[in-house]
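Why show two proteins at once? Because comparison is the fastest way to build intuition. When a single record is shown, students tend to memorize it. When two are placed side by side, the eye starts asking what differs. So, the first record is below.
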Amino acid sequence: MALTPLDIHNKEFTRGFRGYDEDEVNEFLDQIIKDYELVIREKKELMERVHELDEKLKHFSSIETTLNKSILVAQESAEEVKRNADKEAKLIIKEAEKNADRIVNESLAKSRKISLEIEELKKQSSVYRMRFKMLLEAQLEMLNHDDWEELHASLDEEEKEQGS
């Protein structure tokens, strides 16, 4: 059983003829020495353990610092990547809008050109139709004209003359 400081303080030695009992004092001192050596050993072990834990703490603190720096660098990199992606997205959108405007403008120009061509074709069709109608009317007039009958009559006469 280990002694406490109170045990040492309250220890009373019995007196012999010449004072304290020397064997009892020596025995008590031996017990104090053993306990004190045990305390010193424990203190040394605890100091070694404290030193070991301090080293681990320094190591982990170093790792924590490195990790914090890495996290900061990663966050900065992520922000930079995000900014670059935003810039690139804006450029892509701007280019797409430009292309869309160009395509719309080209389509409008083609549409106008086609509309003009259609109008021109309608005019040409109308002119052709009118000319064709005039041609047919002229041909019909020629067919309805009395000249045919005269031509027929003159041919009939020639045939008769040749036949006689």
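Second record. Ask yourself what differs from the first in the token line.
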Amino acid sequence: MPKAPISSTLGPQPSWFTAKRLLAIFCIINLLNYVDRGAIASNGVNGKRSECTKSGTCSSGSGIQGDFNLSNFQDGVISSAFMVGLLVASPIFASLAKSVNPFRLIGVGLTVWTFATAGCGLSINFWSITICRMLVGVGEASFISLAAPFIDDNAPVDQKTAWLGIFYMCIPTGIAVGYVYGGLVGSLLNWRWAFWIEALLMLPFAILGFVMKPLQLKGFSHTESKRPLTSVRTSCPEAVASPSQDGSFQIRNDSKDDSESAPGILNQLTRFWKDMKVLLHERVYVVNVLGYIAYNFVIGAYSYWGPKAGYYIYHMNNADLMFGGITIICGIFGTLAGGFVLDLMTSTISNAFKLLSVATFCGAIFCFAAFCFKSLYVFITLFAIGELFVFATQGPVNYVCLHCVKPSMRPLSMAMSTVSIHIFGDVPSSPLVGVLQDHINNWRATALILTSVLFLASGIWVIGIFIQSVDRFNEENEHQVSVADRSNTIPLLEEKSAETS
């Protein structure tokens, strides 16, 4: 009797899905996520408050800020509310990935995102839109935590950082498109329509997450099992694969408890806490995330306040289009360049830190210098060069997050990275910049103070160069390495041949 194909031990796979199609679909979803962030920051959607002169003449407000009469601090809170939902839900989805198929979790998250985004368009006051924005963050959490590990699993070995670069290129591109999109929809229709259209565009992908055969991450069990294949040394006993006499692999449960039910809440919390201790003791991971926090503090505030700062500093009537154009061009070329350059340097954790520190330092110099000039054209030139360098970090920083931990730890690694950069980065930065601007009332000075934080990010990443690092992408226990090596000989999403009888 012929040997059972290796793919049969990994569960059913989609027959039409390829790695490149997975990348394309994930890129579109990521693009829509960030179009939403750019749209709510645009002048067309965010708008401005009603302003009165000393003579008593008042101009009418516009957008969210005008309709709900928000201060700059309240306006910043709307941005932070999204991040609060994201940071609370990210570790939850990452932990559930060990007992629920990760691809189905993405479907759940995108469904929540779709309905919450539509709810933003129906909001009636500050609190209603704040709650809806928080739920949008909850919905995005599953995708942000799990998409990158899927891509890293299926990318060609010599192009992993490039594929991650393509995926993360959608961040600046989406924000930039969001600026333009929000400006156009806000002026032609109404700011509420911007959210309703986004929800309609995301709906097919939310449905896809439920109707398509679920995919599986490296380091976890096949889709019909509720237990992961891999066992982290800090985790509860789980199923492992052992070779049978005919050469195929069979699932063996080493747990003393033969119950098929998912671990209880207490076990889940215990495993989560132990896995967190592993992350916190990984110095490479901690340094990488600390640098990413400082970096995201600046980028988050740039993305939210950029169009408004440009409007007041350089009197740009088309600030949405201007910032959108600069960000989309520099974001695409900068992010792609960062991924390809690291692959050319040979993708190692040490080389990633070198690229992160140098690119961020150069970007900080150009962006800081840009705000020192009063000429709009000099500003555009220097700021564009600065953004090219700044966005080159996206591929390398996420490469480090994925490769400094074991495969079964990657969802939690990405989730906690996301939580950290938001809770300490752009969650406080948007309202803090709003408070700073309310206090000094000088957008140029505010922008210079904010940009200087990029030098701190560069300095933190320099430390990572000198820390001894180990790439743990293929590091699991003895049995699981064998399974991973065997399964990696055939691309996860390649069309499978029919089983021989």
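One difference worth noting in the second protein: The first helix runs from residue 19 to 41.
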